[in-house]
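Technical note accompanying the year-one report. For the benefit of new consortium partners, we illustrate the data format agreed upon in the data management plan: each record pairs a sequence with a structure-token string. No post-processing was applied to the example shown here.
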Amino acid sequence: MTNTYSNKLQNIVEDFQITFGHPAESTPTLPTLERFTNRKGWGSIEEAVEQLYSISDDKADFINAVTKLHEYLDKAMAKQLGKPLITDRTEKLVALADGLGDELWFLLGDCVESGIDIQPIIEIIKESNDSKLFTDENGDKYAKQDENGKIMKSDSFFAPESRIKVEIQRQINNSLTK
């Protein structure tokens, strides 16, 4: 692990980014709009929809929740369009850092509101991601990508859900004994 950051979780993700050939900057750097838009789609948006589905009681509830997300997205876009566009690079980085910090604050707040200790969950997800790696004849680990750049999974890959289930049950059991 490179330990560039003061946050352990961020260092875990940095290790993944480097191992899998994704960007990992050590100084504040503006990502391209295309890359960042894709990451929000793959991550924040897709995961938010998945989370809403996981807590919905039926498909109608789920559809209503996603429709509400569309409304929030439209409202947020209108709010930003009412502001002047930031043109200074440093000011762009300040605004990006503020937004990332706010987003992380809300994500951690979601963990708190759900009573989920996220650190062990992140560690399980890291182990699962690392299990995608292939091993060469020297024992060195490496990532493989298909022709579209999607990370391929090695034969040793394991999905994290069963381990997360064990961890969640441990957290439930620990809370019952307090």
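Partners are asked to follow this layout when depositing records. The helical segments are 8-19, 33-55, 59-81, 89-114, 118-130, 161-176.
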